[in-house]
Predict the 3D structure of the following.
Amino acid sequence: MTNTQLDMRGRDFVALADYTQEELYALMHYGIELKRKQKAGDPEQALRGKSLAMIFEKSSTRTRVSFEVGMFQLGGTALFLSKNDIQIGRGETIYDTAQTLSRYVDGIMIRTFAHRTVIDLARAATIPVINGLSDLNHPCQALADYMTIYEKKGKLEGLKVAYVGDGNNMAHSLIMGASKFGINITVATPNNYAPDADVVKQAQEQGKLYGSTITLTNDPREAVADADVVYTDVWASMGFESEQQKRELAFRDFQVDEELVKWAKSDYLFMHCLPAHRGEEVSEGVIDGSNSIVFDQAENRLHAQKAVLASLMRD
Ligand code: CP
Ligand code: NVA
């Protein structure tokens, strides 16, 4: 199946909230198809001759490599633009950067701090803008994660996902994705680290349409009880490094370890977007154990993002 039934050309990919359930399923299935074709030695070169500019204001391993390789596999090319190397680092505006890049390339991926920067870039650019992580969300990761769960469990609707830890960008995109895919998600955080109330409200509204529930708690056991998926992320995200010590204290009862996962279903999947800190948010035994699928998630960044790139940037 190629993604011909839904036309997404020219659109931005800033948040999962901007896409319908049907569109997200189409992207997911297209990612699975692109993965199959690539592995069969029959890559789909939907973006021959196209270029993607990749602006990075934060570090990255997976996002950089998967977008760069993804563009190459689709027949195009990608340019790595660290903020230290381009004029944004010296104060050139987002508007001027967006307008200029729109004259050279066919799409922009940005990893940045303030979510506002992604929105401003998308408004000012005349080409698709893809969010490669902001302080508010990480939609490419969540799309790849739900694709990974679908591959392993054969379905999404009705599953229970437990997210344990910081109510951060990752939590927000997982919550929004869950609401679209008919998944029940329970998020366990310490009191002052709950996910953004607006994101939760919006997801709860969406969830009513697709039969999913969004539950918040301070009790990791309640979240993990009978879960199909147990997900965690770092306690101090990029930009919050100065809070590391304070957070280690606040989150000390929120480690996903062998004791906690006993509450999950026996065939639960352990997930983490990576990079991980073994001994903090997750024990070595869990992340390196047989239920862990963290590298399948990392791999699927490539395939899911190729579906996004090809759908938005093809002629
Ligand atoms: N998960 C993820 O986005 O990883 P990177 O920070 O390495 O890109
Ligand atoms: N929440 C993490 C995700 C990294 C991929 C961060 O923002 O640093």
User: Anything to note?
Assistant: The chain has a mean pLDDT of 97. The longest helix spans residues 294-313.
